[in-house]
Amino acid sequence: MPALEIYAVALPTPLRRTFDYLAAEPAEAAPAPQQTLLLQDDPAPSQPAHEPSIKGRPGMRVSVNFGNQKLIGVIVAVKEHSEFDLKKLKPILALLDATPLIPPELLHLCQWAAHYYHHPLGEVLAAAIPVALRQGEAAELSTEKAWQLTVNGLHCDLNELRRAPKQQQLLQQLQDEARLGVSTVLHKDLLLQAVNRNALKGLSDKGLIDALEITPEPLRPAKLLKTQPLVLNAEQSNALAQITLDDYTCHLLYGTTGSGKTEVYLQAIEQVLRAGKQALVLIPEIGLTPQTLSRFQRRFNRPLAVLHSNLNDTERKQAWLLAAAGDADIIIGTRSAIFTPLRRPGIVILDEEHDTSFKQQEGFRYSARDLAAVRCQRLGIPLILGSATPSLESYHNARQERYRLLLLTQRAGDAQPPAIELIDLKRQPLQEGLTQALLEQIEQHLLASGQVLVFINRRGFAPTLMCHDCGWLSQCHHCDARLTVHQQPAHLHCHHCDYQRPLIHHCPTCNSRELHCVGQGTERTETLLQNRFPDFPVIRVDRDSTRQKHAMSNIIDQVNRGEPCLLVGTQMLAKGHHFPNVTLVAIIDADGGLFSTDFRGPERMGQLLLQVAGRAGRAEKPGSVLIQSHLCEHPMLQTLLHQGYSAFAQLLLHERQLSMLPPFRFMALLRAESSRSENAHELLQIARNMAERICPSQPDLQYLGPLPAPMEKRNQRFRHQLQIHASSRAQLHQLLTPLIAELEQHPLSRRTRWSLDVDPQDMS
Ligand SMILES: Nc1ncnc2c1ncn2[C@@H]1O[C@H](COP(=O)(O)OP(=O)(O)OP(=O)(O)O)[C@@H](O)[C@H]1O
Ligand SMILES: [Zn+2]
């Protein structure tokens, strides 16, 4: 009798363990497992995929009965023995893959993450696998709509289309690509390049192009490059030369805004592609920076897959499978793309590495940046972290020589660094928060045909509505927060719990009509600027104005047309945009971060200010930056603006060291929340007592709390936290492993919502 096979299966449940199942018996074996892609370098399975004799292997999906539900899980180990009574083990219902969907290397990453973040492996895997595959769909590439030039289209004289410039442009592009040997172009790629659908229809109606359905074959024309690389300046060449491609090194590419980091990435990727390997590029938010994506598309004649939150389930699965099969050479994605399987991994690049979006703040709270380092180390491939304003963690690692520091101190090409000037707000008459001096400068830049970017990090019209007669404030009843006044459309809105109500015109307490909007938001600044500069378009960029799918790329197109205009927006404007005609950046209020309760407040403020400032003068026209502040003499602001980010980062690091905070200490945050404040507090007190028993508070391991969170009440729930600080990661995890195991068993922990955040980035 053949030895019994037992699968340890990770299931998407909150339980921190795997579950043993028996392999299906041949007689009642699985319904035909669907054909899967071959993800490993091993030969094709010897049996056809439908043979029930296919054996389960780690990384394959199975469906199983779990309680009274049917779940899909992933085999993480195959064993001959179980610590459970064999008679009680159930057989799996079906084996869903013929070869592992999750290659061993990726499975290892997920296991590492589950262990490090003390999170259930089943949930980690669920985060790693696209929804469609998680729900059991076959791991098969779908067909896609594509376009091909007809014979007429190939030879059509472009002049014939001069009345239809969009069609003409598109036809030219397709003819150019055809000459490079690219005969079919995927519909989705054209849409990504913002090609007009009507232009496609026009060419198709004229019989110049044909639509077809293809299973995209990876197209790799002999010519690797579509456009020639730029000639690197000395700093860029030096940086590129120091990037080691054949083993693991983490490089911190620390380059001032506009210094041409992207060009260094592109040329490093070129070498990786020439070596026949794949590049994985992580960027903060693709929807916000379609420009970045198009720079990669314009450079390489190689299949590219994009993974971001705007994709539907099928598109996501497709991109993931293309990467897994090695059919995509460049994979560009946001945070969760760190879990993309790669058949020929060659390099991982994380652009804007300081960006907080690389840390997942809900559920499985992981850092894509830290996981990238773990993954690259294991794969023996290079990692590049790039930023003009590196996180203190990465900067510290570079100073400790754990990362290789690559510096770009000059702007690329002929662009000059912008001149930065502070405007003291104290005792100045203000118009909706703007000083006279600032308004005059804005006017001068507009009259000189420049574009002006006005940064204000708050959306809506005003952060509060107040009664001038009785002092009533528009408090949210669900949160310790105020309702924000919005005018477009008019309503009151809590930005924390999403509660909304119509705008009121009488004070609910004293019935006075004297309701005043207090403070500024983007809508209010927009209105002021529209009234003050009626001859120039004012474009607002915030979450509200960019909700629609192509809103952001439309805005970017408008700005890139180059006519003078005013851009008013939140930090969405700070994110890696390249607006060559912006000559003035105005920052309405620099002070927020200096008062923050979060110890990372000043770091974030400095990053944001420099990132926004970096949008000025990126091409031939020189740029200026004006920053309004009530605290012009503040040492942090002074250091940042006069000595630069490195000095600022060193100052902050020194303070972190004195106050024993990360990156000098390692932190975990245990959060609890409940509709009854006492419950959340009590659970954390229990946790603290357990922790003290496992490892008493001592200089190397300290507890702080339980304390109410900075915003204690949010969405009707009261939130508390317990901070755990340790002098080494090892110490922290030696405590967390037994602590979480014990806490899970406590009855109150089943009734109270709680979570653990290892290396928390946001202390709220
Ligand atoms: N070697 C070079 N010669 C000429 N122009 C260059 C060179 N390298 C980059 N550039 C140009 O400089 C501009 C800024 O480069 P890029 O956007 O790559 O900078 P960055 O460091 O990524 O900027 P940021 O961090 O501000 O987003 C781009 O228009 C780019 O084409
Ligand atoms: Zn609220």
Automatic annotation (TrEMBL):
Give GO BP annotations, semicolon-separated: DNA recombination; DNA replication initiation; DNA replication, synthesis of primer; double-strand break repair
Q: Does the keyword Isomerase apply?
A: yes
Q: How is the cofactor bound?
A: Binds 2 zinc ions per subunit.
What gene does the UniProt entry assign to this protein?
A: priA
* Domain Helicase C-terminal: from-to ranges: 491-659
Gene3D superfamilies tied to this protein: P-loop containing nucleotide triphosphate hydrolases (3.40.50.300), PriA, 3(prime) DNA-binding domain (3.40.1440.60)
Query: Quaternary structure per UniProt?
Result: Component of the replication restart primosome.
Domain Helicase ATP-binding, by residue range, is 252-408
Q: Which cofactor does it need?
A: Zn(2+)
Q: Identify the keywords attached in UniProt to this record, alphabetized.
A: ATP-binding, DNA replication, DNA-binding, Helicase, Hydrolase, Isomerase, Metal-binding, Nucleotide-binding, Primosome, Zinc
- Species in which this protein is naturally found: Pseudomaricurvus hydrocarbonicus
Which residue stretches belong to region Disordered? 39-59
UniProt-listed SUPFAM superfamilies: P-loop containing nucleoside triphosphate hydrolases (SSF52540)
**Record: residues binding Zn(2+) 1:** 467, 470, 507, 510
Q: What is this protein called?
A: Replication restart protein PriA
Which Gene Ontology molecular function entries are recorded, alphabetically? 3'-5' DNA helicase activity; ATP binding; DNA binding; hydrolase activity; zinc ion binding
Binding residues for Zn(2+) 2: 476, 479, 494, 497
What the protein does? Initiates the restart of stalled replication forks, which reloads the replicative helicase on sites other than the origin of replication. Recognizes and binds to abandoned replication forks and remodels them to uncover a helicase loading site. Promotes assembly of the primosome at these replication forks.
Entry-linked HAMAP family: PriA
Q: Record's GO cellular component, any one? A: primosome complex
Provide the reaction this enzyme catalyses: ATP + H2O = ADP + phosphate + H(+); Couples ATP hydrolysis with the unwinding of duplex DNA by translocating in the 3'-5' direction
Q: Name the protein family.
A: Belongs to the helicase family. PriA subfamily.
Q: Does the keyword Glycosyltransferase apply?
A: no
Q: Which is an annotated Pfam family here?
A: DEAD
